[in-house]
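Question: Send over one sample?
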Amino acid sequence: MKKILVIDDERSVQESLKLVLSDSYNVLIASSGKEALEILSGGEIDIVFLDILLPDKDGISLLQDIRMSYPDMPVIMLTAVAKVSTAVEAMKMGAYDYLTKPFDVEEIRIIAKKVSDQLRVKQKIQFFSDELEKSSGDIVCESKKMQEVLALALKAAPYDSSVLIFGPTGSGKELVARFIHKKSSRTGDPFVAIHCAAIPETLFESEIFGYEKGAFTGAFKSKPGKLEVAGAGTVFFDEIGEMPLSLQIKLLRVLQEKEFSRVGSNEPIKLEARVLAATSRDLKKEIEAGRFREDLFYRLSVIPINVPPLKDRREDILPVAYYFLSLFGKQMGSRTKAFSPEAEKLLFSYDWPGNIRELKNMVERILVLKGSKDIIDVDDLPEELKIRKEELIDQANIPFEEKVKEFEKRLILETLEKFFWNKSKAAEYLKMSRRMLSYKVEKYGIEKK
């Protein structure tokens, strides 16, 4: 619950504001400027209501002191009608707004809610910004699954072992590859991505290995390939499952012998780069179908890393959405700072079949069309998410008792996982006995995965 400090020496004003606001806020009272500064020094005050006239200090002077020590503190001035001009002057000095006596109850509630909502948005943006700073590179994640992916990638980073990254299209496989590169000793050298599905088969060999002048029609000058350009850096073969069979054997030979030659040349070039690869295909099925070489598969997958789809790590949806909101907002000069709580629910509940890429495109599209709005609401979201809203409404018909049971079951499971299935610690955290926890685990059929 947010804390409001009312600074006014009139008892009737103190009691009125406390009566109106105490159902939603923790209201503290100060009768003088000195008392107010002492309370503010204790911290955790969110909003200030400040009277223009105080017994030991005028409100304008106290406003200056508050702005000096707490520059982001929203201050709402309280004034008699005759002092409105003074309150307006206070707003020029940084006050958030002003209220005139006698107060309108609904006006007080509206202005307090408005400030509170803006603080919530600001705190949410700050939270996700902090999480982004703590995250590695451009990988924003809150979920345990993605943290495990990054932990494995971090272990693999210092070594030259080949890494094969699995995951559905748009799930962030290239980001994981770039993370490995950044955390390796090769970070000062190039990261070269080769998108296997985007290169025509006839150009594949010359793109990867390079070519000499006159090697084929149109080769008017020599050109280094991507393996050569990478130097001692990292080469990333994205969608390696799309690589033609004729090239797979050549790549295997390069990985084994650590050297290659340009097209039209017999001069060997040493392979210095580390090789990473990724695929959205089931390569074992591709092997069975004769479309992928088994020996290349085992050469590439010394360290396999699986990136889960976004629907299996829902804790990442909102952090990633806010990351893109901030990123594109800065690029476009948009004023949009947040999603409404209802919009957040839809973002969270949607399955995102296109994963991170779909979420990124959606946020960019919204800012192009709705970037003049402060907050993105449900009506601003694409139709596919609104359909999900109707499904959520249907779920509202589930009996309350069943919802409570489902919530309790999920809470117990999450707590057990949080404490690595130590029931004593989980029971202490949930404020219940170990015997009661064991009973509920058995009742709900909760099992360790």
